[in-house]
């Protein structure tokens, strides 16, 4: 009999208590946002769609090899052993795990999952799966600067001028070694330190032309300016043509 | 208690017949011949000074033939191993019990009546590795469909190309851009 | 054919010329319009209330504060395919939503919104409302049975058991004020609550002799609580939403319904919510009187409109409390629902009824010091 | 599992004869009895059902509202993670471990990495260990929040779910801050952690924890002590200690039965021997020892303990220092030959990883002990005799994640 009345009192008391809690929350601010219009701030280093800094990439296949699901396909031709004529660099988001491993192994820090200009893009909403295999290339074939460089070499050859040896280039690149320390401590492949980090000076297997570096940097801008998304990144790279400049990852701290 | 101590205890209890110690670099294990498995397991569970009352894991492994790199002599025959990990709540220790099964006859006694927890583990081992547990109350596939062919965790497993009209080709079926 | 046309014409003339037919058609139209608008508003209110309780945003896109969201949803439902399961009992399946809706819809006929604003002034208004709302369960049973789905069947059976059980305490709880007022006419019950202290007094504002029935006596207050709880069960609201218990029965009796037919079940639920709240307001909370012990006597169209607004506001408040409860409480188990109905609500109501009868016999409302 | 292709898959035939005394099975509420025997109904709960927490299918034999037999059917989410573990390298396998128990991905990362570190004999820097502890305990809170929130959903209370999610969102923000992902972290790596704690992270955690404990009290008022909730969960799905042990239950489910057994205490890994914390156990406060309410209550208490551990770990966190063991190269990592088992305390129980390595960059055999898998196997033993609504409450109280059950 006692439990009978205790039950009645208990149920009324706890119901009122619960209603107090819900009423208290009635006045709390909403925690949700109207998603597509309003975005939550993304922290630095979040994992979303990839961006590729095509000018810097040395086509070393490390990202494709570390990928647990083999979602990265890359294909390029080496022209004159140092210029890359891109055919394909695609990430298949049907498979991608967003595990960040490809970013960490990159010796040149040229593939990223956080958009450096802050245009967060991470939603994989589609009704057509074939659209999820995304090509990250901004242009196929040689970049404009490379085209000019190759043309120049060809013209030189035709004229009988020998290409200067690579030795002075290695000397010029030396000061950059200190700055080329990868920012994230986790990824530190050995060969990364041997080459200048600066984006504009296109490092191709040790052969480097110091005289061409500034001009390349100047021309990198129009080449990369076509698609808007990567423009700031490319511009930042162009600015950091100075070998003493800090490595690329630190330019997107803001 | 370590595996060596447990082996000594078992020998003292008169259960040591045929037992051996597998001394790996990390976790040593008790190696039990499959004929004696139930007796040893029952003792491990019921003896108060052992009291392995929690069956943690049942693992089946397909060990392939291994040859010495230089002499080409066979250092390991192809066989199956079943490993039971037991935990004693009272004595705060974990023990691995190993049994080797010949490749041609992967059958071992079930311990599902000693630890009901073994029921699903043994079904899974049967499903994925293809080891039969004698005396299991309900030995059928648990994770894979009933009509699946083969046991995927065997090293010689061949991936099917198709299952009931579903294309299982490894290559992506969607086109590249 | 030639002879039929004049007949029809004269019949039409009679019908349109007749005040009765006109008012009938008008009231039906009004009730239909009101129920539809109410259901849309209530769905919006439910979504907004739940969002507020759950610190979410709720509907924001369609219209101001998302007010037109339910209209958009209704349109969407109207354009959806009307699926009928192949193995279902087709006829029953198709008419079940209509029947379920009829009960709640018909109850509106007897609800007075203000002294002069009622479709029909029934002497047995309260009885009619209680009886007609029970019709809905037949529709639900038909829906569950004809769907040929085991979950639907479970939902329907639970609904039948629950409704039959909870009709008893809710009707008994309504008997307590009926005992006090001595009338089943809803208008008269409200009239009792706003009766002036001295019969001869006149004026727009006066003290009422009895006040709201919920505050009339402790036993009427108990009856009010019991009625409110039982009415939650009658309109399948949490914590008694077993017939459509989502986590147990998928969607209960309307699992197989889609499109407009599905929306009819929705309409029924929200119409029911209004009906039970309206009955609670009329019987226990002074109907259209805005204050418990002070009554207003306003005449004319403006007065009636004011009363209707007060009445609606009270109903919406009660509906909102229903929602508040729903978004606070877990769901009872099916046997606990029965236990609650038979072991708790019915004895409590019977006790209240008995004591109220004794008090009425002695001519007192409450005994100071005892209750 | 049975047919997954044909739409009208027949229910598996009973392999045991139906118990003729099932109508009077223990666990039936005392105030109901059966006077008419009617035909049993077979119903198919899942794989598409709101409260099976994923794609679990339970074939139920019911007599009215009372379950007489239950046959859980799993495997709808099977990916053969163990086979994948044999095919990809150690480093590449870490993101796969996120996908077993996707609500406690940090813990899975940790269990796997500890196993590899044990076999490969790696030393993990101290700072990394502290960061691991903080991340794992935060993840445990998030996982328990999900468990208690969805448990509220299972018994029909919607709002607690959102309050739990509000808190969980905050944790996900913290974890996203440190590793860039919200659910599948891949944060704890072999030999250390992926990134060092960013500036302000630790301070934010402390701020969150202060607020969080107040919100837990609110949660208790709303759900834990609610009379209806207690009625729904107390005395329901009672698992005695012996039964729990025999069925290999671990984690909150075992502790809910009253056994004080926590691997963080019994076999400390990471730095758990440096922290002070209690191991809450069920006491049968609202009903019988080992009922659904006890399991739920253990989770509620464990969240507070996790918060305590987090605070201590933050207080002890060394300034600066390495976060990665030496000689761990992404592409060139190779383990020593050997085999080892590591069991850690996941939010759902003992997550074990048994690794056989023959040297080389990938394992010879990976075996996962998924706590949910073992916990779920008790289902057919405790469901008979309960009501349909109880079945939902029991499945919810065991707190399974199907990604882990099926692996």
The CATH architecture of chain B: 2-Layer Sandwich
What is the CA-based Rg of chain C, rounded?
22 Å
**Arithmetic mean of pLDDT of chain C:** 83
String of helices and strands of chain B: HEEHEEEEEEHEEE
**Main β sheet profile of chain B:** 5 strands, mixed
Strand arrangement in the largest pleated sheet of chain B: 1-2-7-6-3
**How far is it from the N-terminal to the C-terminal residue of chain C, by CA?**
74 Å
- Which structural class do the helices and strands of chain B define? alpha+beta
Helices of chain B, by number, come to 3
Fraction in beta strands of chain B: 25-35%
Strand order of the largest sheet of chain C: 1-2
Mean model confidence by pLDDT of chain B: 84
- Main β-sheet of chain C: number of strands, strand sense, barrel status? 2 strands, antiparallel
How much of the sequence lies in strands of chain C comes to under 5%
Ends distance of chain B: 60 Å
Q: What is the name of the CATH class of chain B?
A: Alpha Beta
| CATH homology-level superfamily of chain B | NADH:ubiquinone oxidoreductase Nqo5 subunit
The helix content of chain B is 10-25%
Describe this structure in words.
Chain A is α+β, with helices and mostly antiparallel strands and 254 residues long. Chain A has helices at residues 2-26, 62-66, 101-105, 144-159, 167-173, 176-179, 213-224, 231-239, and strands at 51-52, 72-79, 83-92, 111-112, 133-135. Chain A has one domain. Chain A has a 3-stranded antiparallel sheet with strand order 2-3-5, with no helix packed on it. Chain A has a two-stranded antiparallel sheet with strand order 1-4. In chain A, helix 7 packs antiparallel against helix 8 (231-239). Chain B is α+β, with helices and mostly antiparallel strands and 177 residues long. Chain B contains 3 helices and 11 strands. Chain B has helices at 3-12, 37-46, 118-128; strands spanning 20-22, 29-31, 54-63, 66-67, 74-76, 79-88, 93-102, 107-109, 132-134, 162-163, 166-167. Chain B has a 5-stranded mixed sheet with strand order 1-2-7-6-3. Chain C has 371 residues and is an all-alpha fold. In chain C, strands 1-2 form a two-stranded antiparallel ribbon. Chain D is an alpha+beta fold and 407 residues long. Chain D has a single domain (81-406), classed as Cytochrome-c3 Hydrogenase, chain B (Orthogonal Bundle). Classes of the chains: A alpha+beta (254), B alpha+beta (177), C mainly alpha (371), D alpha+beta (407). Chain B binds chain D through residues 24-27, 53-57, 59, 61, 83, 85, 87, 89, 92, 94, 96, 115-121, 124, 128, 137-138, 141-147, 152-153, 157, 164-166, and chain D through 1-5, 15, 74-75, 78, 80, 82-83, 86, 118-119, 121, 245-248, 250, 259, 261, 266-267, 336-341, 343, 350, 352, 354, 356, 364-365, 367, 369, 373-374, 376-378, 381, 406-407.
């Amino acid at each position: 009999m006692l439990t009978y009345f205790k039950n009645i009192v208990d149920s009324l008391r706890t119901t009122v208590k619960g209603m107090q809690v819900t009423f208290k929350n009635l006045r709390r601010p909403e925690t949700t946002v109207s998603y597509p219009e309003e975005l939550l701030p993304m922290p630095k280093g979040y994992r979303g769609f990839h961006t590729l800094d095509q000018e810097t990439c040395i086509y070393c296949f490390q990202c494709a090899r570390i990928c647990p699901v083999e979602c990265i396909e890359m294909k390029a031709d080496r022209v004159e052993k140092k210029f890359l004529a891109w055919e394909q660099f695609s990430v298949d988001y049907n498979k991608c795990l967003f595990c960040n491993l490809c970013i960490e192994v990159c010796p040149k820090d040229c593939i990223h999952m956080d958009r450096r200009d802050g245009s967060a893009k991470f939603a994989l909403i589609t009704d057509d799966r074939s659209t999820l295999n995304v090509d990250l290339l901004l242009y196929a074939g040689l970049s404009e600067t490379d085209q000019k460089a190759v043309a120049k070499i060809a013209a030189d050859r035709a004229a009988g001028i020998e290409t200067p040896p690579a030795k002075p280039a290695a000397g010029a690149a030396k000061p950059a070694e200190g700055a080329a320390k990868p920012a994230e401590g986790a990824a530190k492949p050995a060969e990364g330190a041997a080459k200048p980090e600066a984006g504009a000076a296109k490092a191709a297997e040790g052969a480097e032309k110091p005289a061409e570096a500034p001009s390349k940097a100047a021309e990198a801008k129009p080449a990369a300016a076509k698609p808007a998304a990567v423009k700031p990144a490319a511009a930042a790279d162009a600015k950091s043509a100075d070998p003493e400049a800090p490595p690329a990852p630190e330019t997107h701290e803001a | 208690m370590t595996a060596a101590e447990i082996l000594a205890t078992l020998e003292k209890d008169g259960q040591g017949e045929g037992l051996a110690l597998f001394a790996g670099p990390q976790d040593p294990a008790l190696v039990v011949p499959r004929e004696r498995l139930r007796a040893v397991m029952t003792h491990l569970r019921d003896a108060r000074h052992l009291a392995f009352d929690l069956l943690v894991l049942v693992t089946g492994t397909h060990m392939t033939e291994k040859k010495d790199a230089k002499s080409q002599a066979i250092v390991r025959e192809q066989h199956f191993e079943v490993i039971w990990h037991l935990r004693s709540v009272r004595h705060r220790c974990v023990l691995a019990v190993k049994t080797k099964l010949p490749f041609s006859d992967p059958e071992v006694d079930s311990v599902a009546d000693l630890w009901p927890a073994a029921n699903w583990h043994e079904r899974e081992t049967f499903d994925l590795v293809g080891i039969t547990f004698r005396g299991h109350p309900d030995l059928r596939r648990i994770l894979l469909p009933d009509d699946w062919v083969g046991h995927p965790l065997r090293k010689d497993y061949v991936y099917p190309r198709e299952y009931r009209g579903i294309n299982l080709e490894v290559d992506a079926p969607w086109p590249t851009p | 054919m030639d002879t039929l046309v004049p007949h029809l014409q004269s019949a039409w003339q009679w019908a349109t010329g007749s005040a009765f037919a006109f008012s009938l058609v008008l009231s039906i139209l009004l009730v239909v319009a009101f129920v539809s608008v109410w259901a849309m508003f209530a769905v919006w209110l439910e979504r907004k209330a739940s969002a507020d309780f759950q610190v979410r945003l709720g509907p924001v896109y369609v219209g101001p504060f998302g007010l037109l969201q339910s209209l958009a949803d209704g349109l969407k439902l109207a354009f959806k395919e009307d699926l009928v399961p192949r193995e279902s009992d087709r006829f029953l399946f198709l008419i079940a939503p209509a029947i379920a809706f009829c009960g709640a819809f018909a109850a509106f006929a007897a609800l007075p919104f203000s002294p002069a604003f009622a479709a029909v002034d029934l002497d047995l208004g309260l009885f009619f409302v209680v009886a007609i709302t029970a019709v809905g369960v037949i529709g639900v049973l038909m829906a569950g049975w004809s769907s040929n789905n085991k979950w639907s069947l479970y939902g329907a059976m639970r609904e039948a058991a629950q409704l039959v059980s909870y009709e008893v305490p809710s009707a008994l709880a309504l008997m307590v004020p009926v005992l006090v007022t001595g009338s089943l006419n809803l208008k008269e019950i409200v009239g009792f609550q706003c009766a002036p202290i001295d019969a001869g007094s006149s004026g727009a504002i006066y003290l009422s002799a009895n006040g709201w029935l919920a505050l009339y006596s402790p036993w009427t207050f108990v009856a009010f609580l019991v009625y409110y709880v039982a009415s939650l069960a009658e309109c399948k609201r949490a914590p008694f939403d077993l017939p459509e218990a989502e986590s147990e029965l998928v969607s209960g009796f309307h699992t197989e319904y889609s499109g407009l037919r599905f929306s009819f079940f929705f309409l029924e639920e929200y119409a029911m919510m209004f009906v039970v709240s309206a009955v609670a307001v009329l019987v226990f909370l002074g109907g259209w009187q805005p204050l418990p012990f002070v009554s207003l006597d306003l005449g004319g169209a403006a007065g009636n409109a004011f009363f209707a607004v007060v009445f609606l506001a009270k109903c919406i408040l009660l509906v909102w409390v229903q929602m508040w409860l729903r978004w606070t409480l877990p769901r009872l188990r099916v046997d606990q629902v029965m236990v609650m109905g038979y072991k708790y609500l019915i004895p409590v109501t019977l006790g209240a009824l008995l004591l109220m009868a004794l008090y009425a016999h002695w001519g007192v409302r409450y005994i100071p010091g005892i209750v | 599992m049975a047919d997954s292709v044909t739409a009208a898959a027949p229910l598996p035939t009973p392999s045991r004869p139906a118990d003729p005394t099932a109508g009077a099975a223990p666990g039936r509420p005392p105030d109901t009895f059966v006077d008419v025997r009617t035909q049993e109904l077979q119903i198919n709960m899942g794989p598409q059902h709101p409260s099976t927490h994923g794609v679990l299918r339970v074939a139920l034999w019911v007599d009215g509202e009372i379950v007489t037999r239950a046959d859980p059917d799993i495997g709808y989410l099977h990916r053969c993670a163990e086979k994948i573990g044999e095919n990809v390298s150690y480093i590449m396998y870490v993101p796969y471990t996120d996908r077993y128990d996707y609500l406690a991905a940090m813990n899975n990362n940790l269990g796997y990495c500890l196993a590899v570190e044990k076999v490969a004999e790696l030393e993990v820097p101290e700072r990394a260990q502290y960061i691991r502890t903080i991340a794992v305990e935060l993840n445990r809170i998030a996982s328990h929040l999900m468990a208690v929130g969805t448990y509220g959903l299972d018994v029909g209370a919607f709002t607690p779910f959102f309050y739990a999610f509000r808190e969980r969102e905050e944790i996900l923000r913290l974890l996203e801050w440190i590793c860039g992902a919200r659910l599948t972290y891949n944060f704890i790596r072999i030999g250390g952690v992926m990134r060092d704690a960013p500036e302000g992270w630790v301070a934010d955690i402390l701020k969150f924890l202060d607020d969080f404990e107040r919100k837990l009290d609110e949660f208790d008022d709303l759900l834990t002590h609610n009379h209806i909730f207690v009625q729904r969960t107390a005395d329901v799905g009672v698992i005695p200690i012996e039964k729990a042990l025999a069925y290999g239950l671990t984690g909150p489910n075992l502790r809910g039965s009253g056994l004080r057994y926590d691997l963080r205490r019994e076999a400390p890994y990471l730095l758990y021997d440096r922290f002070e914390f209690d191991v809450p156990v069920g006491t049968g406060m609202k009903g019988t020892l080992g009922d659904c309410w006890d399991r739920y209550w253990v989770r509620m208490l464990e969240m507070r303990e996790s918060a305590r551990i987090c605070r201590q770990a933050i207080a002890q966190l060394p300034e600066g220092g390495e976060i990665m063991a030496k000689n761990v190269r992404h592409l060139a990592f190779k383990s020593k030959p050997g085999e080892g088992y590591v069991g850690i305390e996941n939010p759902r129980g003992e997550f074990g990883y048994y690794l056989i390595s023959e040297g080389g960059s990938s394992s010879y055999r990976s075996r996962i002990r998924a706590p949910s898998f073992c916990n779920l196997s008790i289902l057919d033993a405790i469901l008979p005799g309960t009501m349909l609504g109880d079945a939902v409450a029991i499945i919810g109280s065991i707190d399974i994640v199907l990604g882990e059950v099926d692996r």
